Amino acid sequence: MSELAIDVRGLVKRFNDKAVVRGVDLQMPKGQVWGFLGPNGSGKTTTIRMICGLLEPSEGEGRCLGFDIRKQARQIRDATGYMTQKFSFWEDLTIRENLAFVARLYNLPKRGQLVDQTLAKLGLTERQNQLSGALSGGWKQRLALAAVTMHKPDLLLLDEPTAGVDPQARREFWDEIHQLSNQGMTVLVSTHYMDEAERCDKIVYLAHGNILTQGRVADVIQRAGLITFQGKGEQVRRLAEQLKGTPGVEHVAFFGAALHISGRDRAKLQSAIQALPKDDTHWQEIQASLEDTFISLMQDAGKDTREHG
Amino acid sequence: MDIWASLQRIYAIMAKELVQMRRDRMTFAMMLGLPIIQLILFGFAINTDPKSLPTAVYAEDNSAVVRRVLSAFEQSGYYQLLHKAKSPEQGSEWLAKGEVSFVIHIPQGFTRKLVRDEQPQLLIEADASDPAAASNAIGQAKEIVNQALRTELLGPLAYLQTPAAQIEVVIHKRYNPEGITQYNIVPGLLGVILTMTCVMITSMAMTRESERGNLENLLAMPTRPHEMMLGKICPYILVGLVQTLVILGAAKFLFAVPFFGSFGLLLCGVMVFILANLCLGFTFSTVARSQMQAMQMTFFFFLPSILLSGFMFPFRGMPQWAQSIGEVLPLTHFLRMVRGVMLKGNGLLALQQEFVALLLFIVVVGTVAILRYRRTLD
Ligand SMILES: Nc1ncnc2c1ncn2[C@@H]1O[C@H](COP(=O)(O)OP(=O)(O)OP(=O)(O)O)[C@@H](O)[C@H]1O
Ligand SMILES: [Mg+2]
């Protein structure tokens, strides 16, 4: 078998002639944890569904765990765990019944024991006979993760597993993800959280159905070549209005009491700052954040698509 | 090993389905309430005036008068003389199979007795298991015969034209001699109710999963189409059997419908019929995009089932095109089975055609379901 867990090329998906994924290439080695990022509607879920054979690509092909995504969806399903974005376990079944159902479908040995263990690990042993629909959002997510990993898949596809989960639980979630990765699972996680992106070996950033950039977080930031100045002081709120639209200032955003302005051209940014009325604002160049980078990438991509009509 | 895994998956789906059914109060109530409501609604007779009922003739005498009488039967519109029987047994057999509704028997020496004014007999054997179908035609028989004689007996035979009836019309009602409509309706209701509930329940099978957002998960797990189909269908065989017992109980204790045939044979027929409907429902659910659509398809199917199967109107009394549609419906074949077994005491031999038809239906519809089954979210 190849060393790539996911190896897809030129994936295109059209719904009613509208392309939502427009040529995605993804080569993901086994054993890593990758983050899949991108704005709402950029095609993350659609891409993941094509990878695990739940949607047939309009164009392109590829392999997942060495199996053809068009022809061997069955084998892929046996060896992957896919946690859907929306909770998709049965709300009218109890927690235990859901786990038992999954265990039966995968024909797992020592089913009762396995379900007991899983419940214990989740801390849901006492509530095992509650309907899963009665669980809070965060608990549903934990149940779903436990259920899709019960059969020890080689590849885990997690679609926004931590949406609506509190920070403490989110941290535990990621500890779990890294544990699973240590056991040898390959994990692709879609997320909107920047801090989660930083926990990944690599990130892939999707916008308008295209991969805009991918790589390690630091590389992605560096490659974007974004220069950011941070301004601190009493007057920054007023300055923000003035800075918007100044040549060379690509975007302006507040981070608490601080103002970040960024662009590609250091000289232009500096002259924009110089042109501001003198006050007690203190300016300093800082390392561009991942978020700044993504927003700037998005704006470029938006310009591109508009130009292309 | 592979088969074992497959059985496990089917069992998993069945168990899940049963638990969900138990928790879904509405559906559960519908499955038990519907038969009872329908029994009450339809338990009352539905009367009709069917024409052109298939009739066989067994004539041991052949004369101008006989021909005239027979053509009068034909012209009345109630009888359609289709077959000539070679023996009384053949006529009875046709009657048992439901190929004809009447056998007209002209005994030997009919004309001779008539000429001698000896009041010959004309026998009509009638399938009264569907009294609505037979009663009007039977009621008209004497009038038809007398009318024929009035026009035929002219010239030298005019002296025979006395007001008294010269021909004695003997009517022999078979299978349901008292002509009780409920005898016919109640066994038919069994088929109607099973059609309704079985198709409806399974038509929700896949649409419910997709509407509640479970489909993506279900498809992401390793299930094959036929496993899904079997897992989704089997639990409801049980439901259908429970309904059958309720209705047969009502038939016996509420309406005192007689039961002549073999109960085992009837159960076999019921099983095959339930399976046919469940398969059809599952097929609907693979085609429908929403539960609403599935429901509409169920009703779209239900309507012709009631109207063209011989439940509402006597099958042989319908126009040919309607009969052709009727032949495709499982209910048509089931009605012949259930009436045959309960009211006529038919055995397997008389019913084999219906069994074959239902099994064929299952194979065709099941194949469509497997082919139409969506393996992806597309
Ligand atoms: N079955 C479908 N039919 C039509 N359009 C669809 C379908 N599924 C997705 N889309 C469209 O495709 C686009 C991409 O959707 P997708 O769910 O892949 O985005 P996403 O990146 O996962 O977004 P989010 O972050 O909000 O989850 C959206 O505009 C969506 O409306
Ligand atoms: Mg999504």
From TrEMBL, chain A:
Residues 6-233 form the ABC transporter domain. GO terms for molecular function: ATP binding. PANTHER family: ABC TRANSPORTER G FAMILY MEMBER 20 ISOFORM X1, ATP-BINDING CASSETTE, SUB-FAMILY H, MEMBER 1. It comes from the Bacteria. Keywords: ATP-binding, Nucleotide-binding. CDD domains: ABC_DR_subfamily_A. Signal peptide: none annotated. This is ABC transporter ATP-binding protein. It comes from Bowmanella yangjiangensis. Transmembrane segments: none annotated. SUPFAM superfamilies: P-loop containing nucleoside triphosphate hydrolases. InterPro entries: AAA+_ATPase, ABC_transporter-like_ATP-bd, ABC_transporter-like_CS, P-loop_NTPase.
TrEMBL record, chain B:
Residues 147-376 form the ABC transmembrane type-2 domain. It comes from the Bacteria. The keyword Transport applies. The chain crosses the membrane at residues 26-46, 185-206, 233-257, 263-285, 297-315, 355-373. The keyword Signal does not apply. PROSITE patterns: ABC_TM2. It is found in: Cell membrane. Pfam families: ABC2_membrane_3. InterPro entries: ABC-2_transporter_component, ABC2_TM, ABC2_TM_bact-type. It is a multi-pass membrane protein. Belongs to the ABC-2 integral membrane protein family. This is ABC transporter permease. It comes from Bowmanella yangjiangensis. The lineage of its organism: Bacteria, Pseudomonadati, Pseudomonadota, Gammaproteobacteria, Alteromonadales.
